[in-house]
Amino acid sequence: MRIPVLLLLLGLAGASFSCAAAATLSLNDKARILNTPYGTLTAAFGAAQTGDIIKARGLGFAEELHLDSGVAITLQGGYSSGYTSQTGYTILDGILVIVRGAMAVDGLVLGSVPAAPVITAQPASLSVTEGETASFSIFADDSGPLSFQWKKNDTAISGATAPSYTTPATTASDNGARYSVEVSNSSDIVTSADALLTVYPVAGNPNGHCSVPAGAGLADVSHPDRVVGTGTPESCTAEAFIAAVALGGSIVFNCGQKPVTITLDRPAKVFNDANPDVMIDGAGLVTLSGGSATRILYMNTCDPNQHWTTSHCQDQDSPRLTVQNLTFINGNSRNETEYDGGGAVWVRGGRFKVVNCRFFNNTCATLGPDVGGAALRVFSQYQGLPVYVVNSTFGGRDVFGNYGANGGGISSIGVSWTIINSLFSYNRAIGNGGNPAQSGTPGGGSGGAIYNDGNTMTLSLCGTLIEHNNVNAYGSAIFFVSNNHDGTLRITDSVIRNNTGGSWYLRPGISAHSDTTLEITNSIIE
Fold first, then answer.
1. Domain range for 78
2. pTM (2 decimals)?
3. CA dist 103 to 12, 16, 106, 207, Å?
4. Which of 141, 209, 294, 298 is 20 to 30 A from 95, comparing alpha carbons?
């Protein structure tokens, strides 16, 4: 039965009905008076004053409505979610009694209310790279025709009214956004859980254009020795990855077409006698996480547990470890005591190369004069050859920075580095007291981005941006100390700026001995 467009009743004196509900604000917006939302018609009735219009969405309300306040109001049903127009009817599964007052009614029918929608699969949180889109979806039962309205940070998204929603190309400002969806039928509205969107910076310095020398580029994994996964995200387990690394060779992933995160409960470890080459390629889709509890990847030619292969473990040519097209997040090596530092990756011996990788929110021991490398810690490279870091990002934004006692990005002793077209920003060296530790301090706090200590060594930067890193002691950008005063710091086509904290500076952001060989070409250091 449709209630007449205009229904005017005068209540009888002494009637026993009353509307005792107090006005309440409800996050489940099913009815409104002006811009004030209410979750029930009873609550709206209790708040209504003469002349008010109660707008009800085109849903079902299982309520008994009594008007006994002597006011004259209007009840309009059938509104869309935005309350801009009446597109249907509101169903009242109950009675409407007017005892005292008057009410005009439109768009209301009496009838049975079907079951409320039930969400059977919530939208999942996603991680994407800046510039990519993100696709969210939801599954709900089919108790009557369902309507959908997606929201970003609790605000409705225009036109997003399907069971799935794909964002426009993401920007840095989208990081941390919450996406949810209202699912409604003629009975009720249910709201999904929030899905969190993480938007990571791209790999590398977009303004870096230095050429990459032979041997520093991507390894060939076109004929892989190991494949982690069988085509689904669920098949790409930590156990499968750890087992693949133990066997060595070229390693790729088959986890489906969407980005996937593999969270480890212990480090994946290279065995020195398994394969001379260990090449791990994530194809830009794989994130390896330490879950804020463990280091992610470990190689040590001098660790007997990983099998000695020579009598000169500190200077042997293999294994040769390459990580490429991967993201490393939430590595944490604070529980490591014998081989400390290296929150995401720890390497000694052989060769090590990093290409097109990203390091976010990794950490290592936070105190100590010489421990460090929140992302990378490296020792003993074969014949003093450099570690290559190419087109990679350490930090990138303030919420993604890496941190440890020294070397918020990377740390090494006696190792040379060639860093090309890479970005270090928002990393922190949070120790205190320097190296050697000042009296009464635990030591550390040097090398906001890079910590290099040792004897004869070379740090070469080309096309690299180092900014917004911070220290407590020395070298807000770079701590470079050659103990025998025979090291070379080479900076080409690079920018070092806006790094903060510390003292003892040879150049802004760079702590080094005054006689350090410093070669600067076409670069900005300020």
1. 31-110
2. 0.85
3. 15, 19, 10, 67
4. 141
